[in-house]
Amino acid sequence: MTRVQLEIALGVLLVVATSAILIIVGLGEEKRMERFELEQQAQAIEVGADLYDINCKGCHGPKGEGVPGLCPPLNDAHFFNGRLVEVGWTGTQEDYIISTVSTGRLISTRPEQYAGGGKPAMPAWSDHYGGPLRDDQIRNIAAFIMNWQATAGQVTTSTETTPVAGVGTDITIALPEGDATQGETLANGQGCVACHITTATGPAWQPSGDQPGIADRSTLRLEQPDYTGTATTPEQYLFESIVDPHVYLVEGYTTVMPNIYGEKLSAQDTADLIAYLLTFK
Description:
The chain is 51% helix and 0% strand. By secondary structure, it is mostly helical. The chain is elongated and about 105 Å long.
């Protein structure tokens, strides 16, 4: 065999071997892509779970069970089987979630049951609308919520909690000594930070520009001619803002905060939240 013939033979063998490898890879490509898609979906759900825990659980519950009087359940058969028809949504369930999270909800669709009362009920979370989250983060949250679909119709999530002796709306009562650390935990768990720190839906607690933090700003509020509340001290002003937020609205804001915390929070909870707010100088 001449050198030319040898090179031709080797070339043919390489072509055949390469073709065989491509065929083998091609035959397994569909399964490989399926595995890749599952891995990407799992990663999106995992990231979405963290984002939900930080931004959503305070209003919709740690397991999507909802908070009575505040926000509806998401881990719920009706949410997946009837909600789209109820609101007239013609797209997919996932697109509905993405749209609602992105733009918020100006008017509650069930004001007799959940926050809003005909006024803004949910802040916009997309950074396109002034919120703190990117599009990919919102898609991850949607993926996490969609992960409940398979079992939402089979599992009944419990919203039962240990009864709390609500603090009420009398801001002149004496509160116990507050714990700022516990107050921070409550602020995160009750979803307060979603409106007052991570978005501009509610008046900011932190100082900004020439504006002091809410602790020092509370004193200034009492001196404003448009103040319509009954507080006489910064502590009472914060107390009033928590349990009766409709008494006085800061200029530029509307009534988003539900009027339920006088029943939902104990005297100790309220004292802890006030102690935490007083750290924002």
